[in-house]
Each structure stands twice: as structure tokens, then as C-alpha cells.
Amino acid sequence: MKLTIEQLKEKTWYRFLKVIYALAFIIIIVFAVALIFDSTSPRYDNDNSYIKCNNGKEFKLSELNKNGTHISGPYIDTGEDRLLNFDCIWRGASADPNIKGYKFIGIYTARNWFKIMWQSLLSIAIALIIFEVIKRIFYYILLGKFMPKKMNK
User: Fold this and answer.
1) How far does the chain reach from its first CA to its final CA, in angstroms?
2) CA–CA separation, 14 and 6 (whole Å)
3) What is the pLDDT of residue 96?
4) Residue 41 CB: number of other CB atoms within 10 A?
5) Which residue has the higher pLDDT, 45 or 69?
6) Among 58, 51, 49, which Cα is nearest to 81's?
7) What is the mean pLDDT of residues 65-87?
8) Phi/psi at 70 (nearest 5 deg)?
9) What is the pTM for the complete model shown?
10) Of 13, 15, 24, 85, which residue has the fewest beta carbons closer than 10 angstroms?
């Protein structure tokens, strides 16, 4: 006996499966948008931020990254401060290690709302396609057709 969509709608397991399907779709969409939102959060740019030594020389943090300097806010912690000061002293900015021999210039990247919107729409479209393919495969396995006709009462 071949099943129809109308007969499936009467089955409890099918209705339960539809609820799980909808919840999985919602969870994946929320997770994808949250991941996109977090990946585009405003932050300091470690590649373009730089220090300006007292002798006028400028060095990007990416050039000095051999010592692991990484910024996440407008301030540099004490250990990194000593390393950056040493880098400037080593490059001839100051002879006294007790005097701060540099000024930190942090480049801040703002959140890109356009990028968030198009990536979110793209991820929703991809999720819709994937979930539609899953639904069609399910119908093919159960009903023998990729696109079964819905019967109206």
C-alpha cells in the first residue's frame, strides 16, 4: 500500500518529525546568524595598528608580532608594553628603558552591517535549499515521489 501525504498527516510520528524539522531549521538559522554577527564584531586591527617610537619610526604590530603582541582593546598590558618599549629602544628610539619610548596607535574596525545582512541572507538561502533537499529525499523514500501532490479535501 502506497502512502499519501494525507495519510502521513494522520500519523503522530510524522507530525513529530515535522516539529523536529522546523526546530532544527530555526536553530541552524539562529546559530548561523549569531556566528556571522560575532565574526564581524568591532575589534582592533592587529595587522594595521602600529606603534610610533619617540624617534619618529613607525612599526606595525604585524611586523613586531614575533613577540606575540596582540591587542584586543585600547590598552596594552604591562608585559606587552615592556616588549614594545624594548622594540623601540632596540631600534634607537630611547636609551632609558624606564621611559616609555613609543605611542600606541590602534586602528579600530567597526561592524560592517552590509556584510552581516548579505551573509545572513546567503546562509538562510543555503539552509532553505538544504532543508528542501532533505524534505524531497524524505518524500522520495517514503512516498516514491520527489514532489508528491497535496490532496485537497
Assistant:
1) 21
2) 11
3) 58
4) 10
5) 45
6) 51
7) 64
8) -145, 125
9) 0.64
10) 13
The β-bridge partners of 44 are 108
Q: How many CA atoms lie within 13 A of 6 on its CB side?
A: 5
Per the listing, cell 624594548 goes with 86
**Does residue 70 contact residue 76 with C-beta atoms inside 8 Å?**
no
- Asked whether 18 and 134 are in contact (CB, 8 A), the reply is no
- Phi, psi (rounded to 5 degrees) for 61: -60, -30
If you write DSSP's letter for every residue of the chain in order, what string do you get? ----HHHHHT-HHHHHHHHHHHHHHHHHHHHHHHHHHHHT--EE-TTT-EEEETTS-EEETTTSGGG----SSSS--HHHHHHHHHHHHHTTS-S-TTS--EEEE--EEPP-HHHHHHHHHHHHHHHHHHHHHHHHHHHHHHHS-SSPPPPP-
Q: Choose among 66, 60, 57, 48: nearest CA to 88.
A: 57
- Average the pLDDT over 87-91 and give the result: 67
Quick one: which of 44, 27, 34 has its CA closest to 116? 34
Contacts of 116 (CB under 8 A, 6+ apart): 36, 37, 40
